[in-house]
């Protein structure tokens, strides 16, 4: 009785000073990390408003003497920015729709359906993720050449319609959904396609958003493949157009920086609008 009476009824609380110190340290680390992440973008903005001589000066000037706003207008007279922006949007939209649809179907099959060879097929699919894409670049080029799709949007789009990463991501997401939903739908007489399209796909929308955003960023920034199979500027995306601003003897770095900022603006806006869904989708797949 004596021991019970002497024991404290509540666990000891942390000292307010220690908690505020930890919070301040966390905020400081986050602030430093944020500044480090934003610094390249701010430096790029400064370069886009400088003259070419200021950009190439040694040591480089951190702030231009006079802001060169006309660099942004000069981009449109130097490259066909509007048309190449349209090509980039077209390629990205086709790839996102195909990726989300095909990866959802294959991911659902690997996660929820039991068939012979499931594990072997999944291992083969995942092994593709370990192969650098440069290894099968020549074979892809030969295939597209035999199909007659060189210098076409179809030739650029085709290799990115389905990826092993998309299948893996959606499989992980479908694994996290409860089995009871499928069993209840099956008892109600739903067939596998109805279960997939009416029950599982709506529940997997966060994972589909995450895959869509990742595919958008990858397709938007892709440079090597369009550069290899195209020589006609009318079918080249914006990434190739910006790369062509780098000349053999002299490069217009301010125009390159201005065009790059205008090119990343749509992706940045898209990510800001859907960032909650993207983070939720990636976090959900990372749990399982």
UniProtKB/TrEMBL annotation:
Top-level taxonomic group: Bacteria
Bilayer-crossing regions: 21-43, 85-111, 118-137, 149-170, 203-220, 253-274
GO annotations of cellular component type: plasma membrane
SUPFAM superfamilies, per database record: MetI-like (SSF161098)
Presence of the UniProt keyword Nucleotide-binding in the record: no
Signal sequence extent: none
Protein keywords: Cell membrane, Membrane, Transmembrane, Transmembrane helix, Transport
Pfam families recorded: BPD_transp_1
Protein topology in the membrane: Multi-pass membrane protein
InterPro entries in alphabetical order: MetI-like, MetI-like_sf
Subcellular location(s) of the protein: Cell membrane
Phosphoprotein found in the keyword field: no
GO biological process, one term: transmembrane transport
Entry similarity comment: Belongs to the binding-protein-dependent transport system permease family.
Protein name: Sugar ABC transporter permease
Protein's organism: Brachybacterium vulturis
